[in-house]
């Protein structure tokens, strides 16, 4: 995890989180469990995987491409701005992988685990991406 993460990702960048469609509540918000850190044994190194719009756009790809990579029949994508996540006490950094361009990581400041109320807050702050079904 880099030390100077704030300077690397601009505040106005959009952050995408891939979530299961089955975890979207009737009001359109995702379940709070969609915002948990994953254990190191699943390859995510105990952070929440996200994708950054600036890299996706630079690669001439779209959010729909991201959704289709994961499986548009099972997954959808929700969005935040980096500034919103930082205001909620999250740190973000780029974490490239071979799965899809723009991969990054999100973790609580101080590397603590998100509480249930913090995950609920992120769920409420997330925005559906228009045009995805």
Features:
single chain; about 130 residues; alpha+beta; 4 helices; about 25% helix; globular; disordered N terminus
What does this structure look like?
The longest helix has 10 residues, at 116-125. By secondary structure, the protein is of the alpha+beta class. The chain has helices at 53-58, 63-70, 82-87, 116-125; strands at 14-20, 48-52, 75-81, 90-94, 103-108, 127-128. It has one domain.
Topology summary:
Layout: E1 14-20, E2 48-52, H1 53-58, H2 63-70, E3 75-81, H3 82-87, E4 90-94, E5 103-108, H4 116-125, E6 127-128
Antiparallel strand pairs: 1-2, 1-3, 2-5, 3-6, 4-5
Count of discrete alpha- or pi-helical segments spanning 4 or more residues:
4
CA(first)-CA(last) distance: 34 Å
Helix fraction by DSSP (H/I, runs of at least 4)? 10-25%
Structural class given helices, strands, pairing? alpha+beta
Radius of gyration: 14 Å
Order of helices and strands: EEHHEHEEHE
Binned strand content: 15-25%
Low-confidence region ranges: 1-7
Envelope shape: globular
Count every beta strand, where a strand is a DSSP E run of 2 or more residues. Answer: 6
Number of domains: 1
Strand order, main sheet: write it out.
4-5-2-1-3-6
Overall pLDDT: 89
Largest sheet: 6 strands, antiparallel
Structure in a nutshell:
The protein has 133 residues and is of the alpha+beta class. It has helices spanning 53-58, 63-70, 82-87, 116-125, and strands at 14-20, 48-52, 75-81, 90-94, 103-108, 127-128. A hairpin with an 8-residue loop joins strand 4 (90-94) and strand 5.
């Amino acid at each position: 995890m880099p030390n100077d993460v704030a300077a690397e990702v601009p505040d106005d960048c959009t952050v995408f989180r891939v979530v299961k469609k089955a975890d979207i509540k009737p009001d359109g918000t995702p379940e709070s469990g969609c915002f948990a850190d994953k254990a190191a044994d699943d390859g995510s190194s105990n952070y929440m995987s996200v994708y950054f719009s600036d890299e996706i756009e630079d690669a001439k790809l779209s959010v729909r491409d991201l959704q289709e990579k994961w499986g548009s029949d099972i997954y959808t994508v929700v969005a935040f701005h980096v500034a919103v996540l930082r205001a909620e006490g999250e740190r973000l950094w780029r974490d490239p992988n071979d799965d899809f361009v723009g991969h990054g990581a999100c973790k609580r400041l101080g590397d603590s685990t998100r509480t249930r109320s913090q995950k609920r807050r992120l769920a409420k702050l997330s925005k559906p991406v228009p045009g995805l079904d």
